[in-house]
Amino acid sequence: MANPGYGKRSAPDQLPRTGHDFTHLPEREAHIAGFIDRLPDGSEMSVKLLSRCLPYGQAAMRTALNNLQRAGHLRRGREHVHGSGSARWVTRTWFSRTARGDAWWAAYAMGDVPEETPEEAEPTQRPTRTRAFLLLAALGRHAPSLALSAAECARLAPEAERWFTRGASEDDMRHALTAGLPARVHSPAALLHRRLVDKLPPPAPVSTRPILRMIECGKCGTPGHPEVLPGGFCSLCRGAEPAPTLLTTLAPETVRAHAATVRRAMSYGREGTRV
Q: How many domains does the chain have?
């Protein structure tokens, strides 16, 4: 694990994990992406440590991470620590199992979580069953008296999805639905519906403070606005020509004033005596 506050951070609103999440990537990148995807938030993401955990050298690991960045799975940058009482910035690596485009990452850096258009999400990654459906279908393995049919899972899934929108985790929901069950459950679907409604957590408090994030170039680490770092790389690291620098023309009187100041400074020696 990285130092507190640093390391991996999972991007929000990812599609449920499947067996073909990274099949569009080369074998090495798919292997590394699958490993990172299963790391908990806060894990150290340095090239050196990842190379110790996986059978790839540091150079190969650095190249693979850059390729994951180009594919939309990863961004590097810094984020301001809210509530720290100081201007402390922490270095983070944001990872998304669901590949995102530059526009999504730019909005995320500004504190938004935009909805993806059908063109932005890969068709092969679209689940036929939602995260809530899968959780409900698996309850019977934890509590046999709560086994549900496919139709019952589909009917209860919208109520379960509300828990996720309020920040609840799968473990939170599973515990709330299975704890303290009666000795005999006559209608598991009715009981679960009642618990999903009655135990729904309150909405998460909305922070009025803006989220401060800064995307950095994946190669040289130069910070910049997301729109000038397409794919997570600056123009120099992408091999593109930098934009020409525009020279500002000074007014004639400003030039004469600067020249007079320089001449006065040159007319005195180091000890303040005129030469």
A: 2
